[in-house]
Specification:
InterPro entries: Coatomer_asu_C, TPR_COPA_B. Its main location: cytoplasm. This protein is mainly alpha-helical. Helix content is 49%, strand content 3%. The chain is built from 21 helices and six strands. The protein has helices at 4-16, 20-30, 33-43, 46-59, 62-72, 75-84, 88-97, 101-110, 151-157, 218-234, 247-254, 258-263, 267-278, 287-296, 334-350, 354-368, 376-404, 411-424, 431-447, 451-463, 468-483, and strands at residues 298-301, 310-313, 499-501, 508-510, 516-517, 524-525. It has a two-stranded antiparallel sheet. A hairpin with a 6-residue loop joins strand 5 and strand 6. Helix 3 runs parallel beside helix 5 (62-72) and helix 18 (411-424) runs antiparallel to helix 19.
C-alpha cells in the first residue's frame, strides 16, 4: 500500500473533505513540495512555509525557492536568488521596485553600470505581496457532520439492493453529537435503513433529528417558544425571536402531492409519497423531471457584482395570505399533456415508429406522477390516461417482439410469431390502431394457412368499418376461410376465453389463473415475476402495494 499513487488518491479525497492535516501528511510522504507549499499558503501556515523555503534551498531547487519567497512576500530572498542564478536585471528591478536602494546600487556596481545607464526603466512599480493570514485555520480541519446516505441518493445513483421493499422508506434517525465537528471518524457513513414512511403533510424529509422528520411537536414548540419569550420580556430579559419556516417547508406541510414536494426541493419525501401511493421503487427515469420542476418553481434575481443572487419562490396562489394554503406554481399542465405529448405518441404509432411511440407513452406515464389537476373530472381522466398508456405500451411491445422474431422460420418460431400477432389484437387501442393490429394478425394467419383464426380477425376488422381496400381484403379472406375453416398451426390463443397478456413473457393469463399487478399502471404479470421492476411503466415493483395515484389535493 505504500505507493505514491495511493498516497496521492488519499490526499485528493482528504482535500475534498477539508481534512488538510491528512493532505499534509500525504504530500510529505510523496515529497510533493509544490503542493505542500501551496497548502501552507492556503491555510495561512507561514511558519511551515518558511521551513519549505529553507528545504528548497537545501535541495538546490531555485524555482521552488522563488515560489516560496513569493508566497512569503520575502523580497530579500527573492533578490538574493535572482543574483545567484545570474538574473541580474531582474534582481536589480526587484530591489529597486521594493525600495532596496543599497542592494540595487551594489548590483549596478558589480555589473559595471551607473544609474544613468538604467534611467529609462519604469518607475511606477507597485508593491505586490500576499495578504497576511488573519485566522490560523491550519490548526484544525474543516468541521463536518456525520450524515446518513439518503434514499434519494441511493435511488438516483442506482446503488440499491435489487429493488426497494414494498414498505415505504425513510432515513435512519441520527442524533447530533458535539464531537461530530471534526472529532469522529470522517470515513464512516451510517447505512441507510429502508423502513417506514409517511404521507403526513408535515413531513420534512431532511430533518432526521428527534421525530425523524414527522415534526410531531412543531406547532407546540413554536407556541412554547412564543410563551417563553413573552415571559422573559415581561421580566425585563432578552426575548429571543422564534425562527420562522421557509417557503419550501410551508409547501411540504400544505400538500400531500409528490409534485409539490419536488417543487419544494424535498426530493426524498416526494419519493416516499410515490412509494406509498404507487409502489414506486425506480426513480432514475424521474430525475430530469424532478430537477426541472424544482428549477421552474423559483425565480432568480441577480444582484450587484460580487453579491449572491436572490431566490424568489413562485406560488400558484400568490394572492393567498394564509400560509397554510400556500402552494408552489403548477409546472405541468394536464390538458397540455393530452394536447401535445399524447397526440405525438398517437402520431408515432400511426407512422409505424413503434420504438419512438413507446418512449412517448412511457414519458407520459412518468409525467402523470408529477402532474397536478384542479378538478375531479381531470383526476378521473388522468387515471384513464394511465390505462391508455399501459395498453399501448403492452401492445406495441408485443408487436416489436414479433418483428424481432419474424425471421425465425422454424415451426416453433412461426407459431410464436402468430401468437404474438394474435395477442396484439387484444390491446385496447384507438379504432384506427386496432385496424392496424387486426390487419397484421389477419394477414399473418392467412399466409400460414391458419384460416379459422384469419376469419376471426377479418370479422372483427369489418366491425370497425375500415377503409375500402382493407374492407375488401377482409371480405375476400372471409370467403376463402369459410370453405376451409381450420388452422394448420395450433396457437395458445382462445378468443372465447377472456385473458390478459403478461407484460414480461407475452403469454396469455386466462380468467381464473393467478396473476400479479403493477400498483401504478395496473399491468398484469405471471406470479413468478413478483418483485421485479414493472416493464411497462419502469417505475413500480410488480406485486407491490399502493394506495393509488394522487393528483389532486
Amino acid at each position: 500500500m505504500d505507493k505514491e499513487e495511493y498516497w496521492a488518491k488519499l490526499a485528493q479525497e482528504a482535500l475534498r473533505q477539508g481534512n488538510h492535516q491528512i493532505v499534509e501528511m500525504c504530500y510529505q510522504r510523496i515529497k510533493n513540495f509544490d503542493r505542500l507549499s501551496f497548502l501552507y499558503l492556503a491555510t495561512g501556515n507561514t511558519e511551515k512555509l518558511t521551513k519549505m523555503l529553507k528545504i528548497a534551498e537545501l535541495r538546490g531547487d531555485a524555482m521552488s525557492r522563488f515560489h516560496n519567497s513569493i508566497f512569503l512576500g520575502n523580497v530579500e530572498e527573492r533578490v538574493r536568488l535572482l543574483r545567484e542564478v545570474g538574473q541580474t536585471p531582474l534582481a536589480y528591478m526587484t530591489a529597486k521596485t521594493h525600495g532596496m536602494h543599497e542592494v540595487a546600487d551594489e548590483i549596478l556596481e558589480n555589473a559595471g553600470l551607473t544609474p544613468e545607464d538604467v534611467a529609462d526603466l519604469p518607475t511606477h512599480g507597485t508593491l505586490l505581496v500576499p495578504p497576511r493570514p488573519l485566522m490560523r485555520v491550519h490548526d484544525s480541519n474543516w468541521p463536518q457532520l456525520a450524515v446518513s446516505r439518503s434514499y434519494f441518493e441511493g435511488a438516483f445513483t442506482g446503488d440499491m439492493e435489487g429493488v426497494a421493499p414494498q414498505a415505504p422508506l425513510v432515513a435512519n434517525e441520527a442524533e447530533p453529537q458535539a464531537d461530530q465537528w471534526g472529532m469522529d471518524d470522517e470515513f464512516s457513513i451510517p447505512a441507510l435503513d429502508h423502513k417506514g414512511a409517511s404521507l403526513a403533510v408535515n413531513n420534512d424529509a431532511l430533518d432526521v433529528d428527534g421525530d425523524g422528520g414527522w415534526d410531531l411537536d412543531a406547532d407546540l414548540t413554536a407556541e412554547l417558544h412564543a410563551e417563553t419569550g413573552a415571559i422573559v420580556a415581561e421580566d425585563g430579559g432578552l426575548a429571543i425571536p422564534v425562527a420562522g419556516q421557509s417557503e419550501a417547508e410551508i409547501w411540504c406541510q400544505n400538500s400531500p402531492l409528490a409534485a409539490d414536494h419536488v417543487a419544494a426541493g424535498a426530493f426524498e419525501s416526494a419519493m416516499q409519497l410515490l412509494n406509498r401511493q404507487v409502489g414506486a421503487v425506480n426513480f432514475e427515469p424521474l430525475k430530469d423531471q424532478f430537477l426541472s420542476i424544482f428549477q421552474a418553481s423559483r425565480a432568480i434575481l441577480t444582484g450587484n457584482e460580487g453579491m449572491l443572487s436572490i431566490t424568489l419562490p413562485v406560488r400558484r396562489n400568490p394572492g393567498e395570505v394564509d400560509q397554510r394554503k400556500a402552494l408552489p406554481v403548477l409546472i405541468k399542465n394536464f390538458q397540455a399533456l393530452i394536447a401535445n405529448e399524447l397526440q405525438e405518441a398517437y402520431k408515432a404509432t400511426t407512422s409505424n415508429k413503434l420504438t419512438e411511440a413507446c418512449t412517448l407513452f412511457r414519458s407520459i406515464l412518468h409525467s402523470l406522477l408529477l402532474t397536478i389537476v384542479t378538478q375531479a373530472s381531470e383526476a378521473e381522466e388522468a387515471l384513464q390516461l394511465v390505462g391508455v398508456c399501459r395498453e399501448y405500451l403492452l401492445g406495441l411491445s408485443i408487436e416489436l417482439s414479433r418483428r424481432e422474431g419474424q425471421n425465425d422460420t422454424s415451426p416453433a418460431g412461426v407459431k410464436r410469431m402468430l401468437e404474438l400477432a394474435a395477442y396484439f389484437t387484444g390491446a385496447q387501442l384507438q379504432p384506427k390502431h386496432m385496424i392496424i393490429s387486426l390487419r397484421t394478425a389477419m394477414t399473418a394467419c392467412y399466409k400460414h394457412r391458419n384460416l379459422q383464426s384469419a376469419q376471426t380477425f377479418a370479422r372483427r376488422l369489418l366491425e370497425l368499418a375500415p377503409p375500402g381496400q382493407a374492407a375488401t381484403l377482409a371480405r375476400q379472406i372471409q370467403q376463402v376461410a369459410e370453405r376451409n375453416p381450420r388452422d394448420e398451426i395450433q396457437l395458445d390463443y382462445d378468443q372465447y376465453n377472456a385473458f390478459v397478456v403478461c407484460g414480461i413473457s407475452y403469454t396469455p393469463i386466462y380468467r381464473g389463473s393467478p396473476s400479479v399487478q403493477c400498483p401504478y399502471c395496473r399491468a398484469h404479470f405471471k406470479p413468478e415475476f413478483q418483485g421485479n421492476l414493472c416493464t411497462i411503466c419502469d417505475i413500480s415493483q410488480i406485486g407491490g402495494s399502493g394506495t393509488g395515484m394522487v393528483s389532486m389535493a
